[in-house]
């Protein structure tokens, strides 16, 4: 049975020592949980986190990469640097990168291509804004983000891509999309993947939900049949809370095929 993905995004939180302490605590709290845990830590903590998590099933991820292979980009890091220190995955296209740093779909695509070339799993984030939702543009936006973000990505590369559906209006707001909204959007994403590739390939892509997920609502989200896991922000910062979210997705159940 396929594992569910439960992913943490620390964002710009936790020092290196705090990350290591967190991993020790989380490991003891989730030792019997068989979901795939992914933890995106600040870049300065990747190396230490990889070493600390070496005896666990945790995947350590970066939170961002530059779209260039190398060069005069002070303060930036590239995909090879992230991979070289042991990270296995990286977040690409998170709404905070799109909104605060003005990253568009073309740039997101360049980053995905670089990450794949370096052997990283891409956690490809996408989702509509509140304006999009109110104006019935959700499907149009998701279609555009998928089409542009996956430009020049071959079918056999999709097994290195996890799609994180994160409606922007639900991130950090305490407002969680309804079961119907989540299910409909994920169904649409899978349908669009079918159009871009084929039904078999689309059915195998991991698609998770993110947006104000916490230790309370995670149980209801876990019941949604077409949700393959969650990407968690604020609630992931406390190991006891995040462990409860992990356990909500264990034991794993095979996604119902339509």
Fold topology:
Blueprint: E1 5-9, H1 16-29, E2 36-40, H2 46-52, E3 59-62, H3 79-84, E4 89-92, H4 95-100, H5 105-117, E5 121-126, H6 130-134, H7 138-149, E6 161-165, H8 179-196, H9 199-204, E7 206-210, H10 218-222, E8 229-232, H11 239-248
Parallel strand pairs: 1-2, 1-8, 2-3, 3-4, 4-5, 5-6, 6-7, 7-8
Would you mind describing this structure in some detail?
The protein is α/β, with parallel strands linked by helices and 258 residues long. It has 11 helices and 8 strands. It has an 8-stranded parallel barrel with strand order 1-2-3-4-5-6-7-8, surrounded by 5 helices. Helix 1 crosses helix 11 and helix 7 packs across helix 8 (179-196). It is globular and about 45 Å long. Mean pLDDT is 95; it is low at 252-258.
Overview features:
258 residues; alpha/beta; 8-stranded parallel barrel
- Please report the number of helical segments: 11
Q: Report the major sheet.
A: 8 strands, parallel, barrel
How much beta, percentage-wise? 5-15%
Large-scale geometry: globular
List unreliable stretches of 5+ residues: 252-258
Radius of gyration from CA coordinates: 17 Å
Terminal-residue CA separation: 17 Å
Mean of the pLDDT scores? Answer: 95
Strand order of the largest sheet: 1-2-3-4-5-6-7-8
Broad structural category: alpha/beta
SSE order: EHEHEHEHHEHHEHHEHEH
- Helix content percent band: 25-40%
User: Count of DSSP E strands?
Assistant: 8
